[in-house]
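Hello, quick one for you while I still have it in my head. I'm working through a protein record and want to make sense of it properly. Would you mind checking whether the tokens look sensible for this chain? I owe you a coffee for this, so here goes:
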Amino acid sequence: MTALTQGASRTASRSARRRRSATRPSAWWAVLFVGPMFSGLAVFYLWPAVRTLYLSFNEAGVFGGTTFVGLENYAKLFADPALGQAMINTGIYTAISLLGIPLALVIAALLNTSGLRGRGVYRVLYFLPVVTMPAAVSIVWRMIYNGDFGVANQLLGVFGIEGRSWLTDPDTALVAISIVGIWAALGTNIVIFLAGLQGVPRGMMEAAELDGAGPVRRFWHVTVPLISPSVFFVSVITVINSLQVFDLVFVMMGLYNPAMPRVKTVVYLFYEAGFVRSDQGGAAAVAFVLLLIILLLTVVQFVMQRRWVHYE
């Protein structure tokens, strides 16, 4: 009995050694594949975040060198009334940008209609702004909004509506830029929604149709809940991208636009601090505050998605 027990233990130990030796190559392969991605994240994301946090507690010279100042940069930032206005402007832009989500969803549903002719052409046209440089998009829309010869005012004139200078009027400048942001993001959102719509089981749609549900009711009560993960993903990236908007504001508004205080975003404050006033510590404080805002809103979205996102 003892010999049998010893033999069984030796067999078990040999099997365990074989399993360990078999798992070691797998672990090395995992490191090999994950290593480049992790290295990129560490170099281009983690280290800049750590460096920014460090600079936010220091006063950096133009030609190098830092002096520790504690929370002085944050105190100056929160005492500046421009921060409150910039946060309001950024919040309004983000709220308007979220209106593009249902618009993209409806367009994606129309493009997903069976038998639609020219579907590929429509998809390409909607996706063109995504592959176009933001500066080029901003310049074209700046000409469209021009108060003297812009296409927008000419179209309004056809219907007898008086035009206006859209980008120099504080009441319309932010809305005008938000419309451009929605238009530029439509292509990406439509592609994501199309991928979700094509994964909807056809049997469920047919069952809803047999129960008497019309096209609109099937869409809102069957299709939308089934693609709620796609809607959630689009909402997250829309909020993050909207909070980081800068290029549209910088190119479309210009430096001496009288409506700039009503359009200036948080990232624009970062630009002014870091590149206009050469205040690297103040710019780092703005960047870290924005990071915390994005992190907080993303966490809130992930918590709230448990109530309306269905993964089964």
The chain has two domains: 48-79, 92-281. Residues 92-281 form a domain with the MetI-like fold fold (CATH 1.10.3720.10). Residues 166 and 176 are 7 Å apart (CA to CA).
